[in-house]
Amino acid sequence: MNEFVETLLDLEWHAPKRSYDVVIIGAGGHGLATAYYLATRHGITNVAVLEADYIGSGNSGRNTTIIRANYGIPESVRFYQHSVDLYATLEEETGAKIMHSTKGLLWLAHTEMAMRAERSRALMNQACGAETVTITPEEAKQLCPALDLTGGGRYPVLGGSYHPGGATARHDRVVWAYAQGAMRRGVDVIPHTPVIGLLRDGGRVVGVQTPAGPISAGVVLSAVGGNVTTIAAMADLRLPIRTHPLQALVTNAYAQGFGPIVASSELLCYVSQTARGQMLMGAEFDSQPSYSRQSSYEFLQSVSAKVIHLLPFLRDLRVLRTWAGICDISPDYSPIMGFTGIDGLLITTGWGTWGFKAIPAGGEAMAELIATGATPALIAAFGLGRFAADHAMADQGSAGTR
Amino acid sequence: MLWISCPTCGERPASEFRFGGELPHVPDSITDPDARNVDYVWMINNVRGVTTERWFHAAGCRRWLTLNRDTSTDTVVA
């Protein structure tokens, strides 16, 4: 058991029962949020959340904690804006401190073409209910005084877009808040219990097999990150998911008050400051798929070179820590949520490198889907069936930087 | 770091190459021609273990090669 969870939280872990109405595989943000909303919004508490390791040990504890809604297609903007709204009131709702902090997100453009993309992004966001405005280089400098507007002479800042709703929250605490909220209402969260098979009755999935024995379920939801292909293969379900590592790093602590989250879609990197003052940065996911969580010197080299162009003070800081998570990348950079075509098996996957910001809205929508048996309008566009129907939801706002 | 043995250029760092995807393999259990097309276009095996894939030597000889790689360790296997 993760010692932090034990010392900071008073959670009562349960041994699995033989049968549940709902079994959720994966006690990360999405799995626990779904359980929490099933209990709070729909009164369904005969729910188990199974986790192979400790809760939040996968990508929920490895992401760069950015919350934003300035996506590139209307369906995504509406969905992520709902998530941003839910995050803003999550502390109030759960009574748990998640260290939510609205910082604003600055998205820089270094070419006229990128500037045009930011203009269209701002207009599209406004039309769909998310606040994003285009800004001049001077306004960018005001928002983030540390910025070098010449971009080290190579990447001059021509302007960009500003998304005031951009925020961060402490990722572990989000996981614990949902776990605590769900468990207080009678949900069983069962760590260190990997799913090693799915129970089938004809074509239907009727439960899961674990080292602690079989558990039967009315419905099984796979909310795993990184290993969804393994779970899907147990039900002979084919997915368009490729698993890539994503790396990130933090430096030693720097003076507080850095300001907004800074991102650049041409340089493909982003920088923010953690509550401890460390500078947190990340870039693109690794180009080749892999399940290895090794971090590489190449990544350090390339991301450092990029961010120093924009924020020269970073060159004097030291790299404190780097890590990697393995992400399920969908071909259109949009999530895959809902029915799978196999009775009794639901999925929420394809969360790639944009899953953390979607935890509240994704959990709420999946809970509604399980409770009502119908796909909520908010996620109707994100079903697995969209690929066969040739309706891929290609989202450049998601593919830019995460 | 991953190193790839190029038939033309010899042992080169993976950063010179572009990943071209795993070799498409539609399972025999899918028989409907339309479903086979959908699977061919979209679906991926994404195995945790040894997989056969195509790589393009973008910053070298600019030729394609086929490679067996273990995705659990990100290493090339024979």
Question: What would you say this structure looks like, in words?
Answer:
The complex is a heterodimer of chains A (402) and B (78). Chain A contains 11 helices and 19 strands. Chain A is an alpha+beta fold and 402 residues long. In chain A, helix 2 packs parallel to helix 7. The longest helix of chain A has 16 residues, at 112-127. Chain B has 78 residues and is mainly β. Chain B has one helix at 33-42, and strands at 3-6, 10-13, 18-22, 50-56, 64-70, 75-77. Chain B has a single domain (3-77), classed as Folate-binding superfamily (Folate-binding fold, 2-Layer Sandwich). The interface between A and B is medium-sized, with 24 and 26 residues.
* Low-confidence regions of chain A: none
**Strand portion of chain A:** 25-35%
How large is the radius of gyration of chain B? 15 Å
Helix content of chain A: 25-40%
Protein chains sharing the most extensive interface: A-B, 24 and 26 residues
CATH class of chain B: Alpha Beta
Roughly how many Å apart are the termini of chain A?
30 Å
Total helical segments of chain A: 11
Walk across the major sheet of chain B and give the strand order.
3-4-5-6
Low-confidence stretches of chain B: none
For this entry, what is the oligomeric state of its chains? heterodimer
The largest sheet of chain B, given as strand count, sense and whether it forms a barrel, is:
4 strands, antiparallel
The CATH architecture category of chain B equals 2-Layer Sandwich
Number of E-type strands of chain A: 19
For the residues shown, what is the average pLDDT of chain B? 94
Structural features:
heterodimer; A: 402 residues; alpha+beta; FAD/NAD(P)-binding domain; D-Amino Acid Oxidase, Chain A, domain 2; eight-stranded mixed beta sheet; globular; B: 78 residues; mainly beta; Folate-binding fold; four-stranded antiparallel beta sheet; 1 helix; elongated
How does the SSE layout of this entry go?
The complex is a heterodimer of chains A (402) and B (78).
Chain A: H1 3-8, E1 19-25, H2 29-42, E2 47-50, E3 66-67, H3 74-88, H4 90-94, E4 101-102, E5 105-109, H5 112-127, E6 133-135, H6 137-143, E7 159-163, E8 167-168, H7 171-184, E9 188-190, E10 197-201, E11 204-210, E12 213-222, H8 228-234, E13 242-253, E14 261-264, E15 269-273, E16 278-283, H9 297-310, E17 319-329, E18 336-339, E19 345-349, H10 359-372, H11 396-399
Parallel strand pairs in A: 1-2, 1-12, 2-9, 5-14, 12-19
Antiparallel strand pairs in A: 3-8, 4-8, 5-7, 6-7, 10-11, 11-12, 13-16, 13-17, 14-15, 15-16, 18-19
Chain B: E1 3-6, E2 10-13, E3 18-22, H1 33-42, E4 50-56, E5 64-70, E6 75-77
Antiparallel strand pairs in B: 1-2, 3-4, 4-5, 5-6
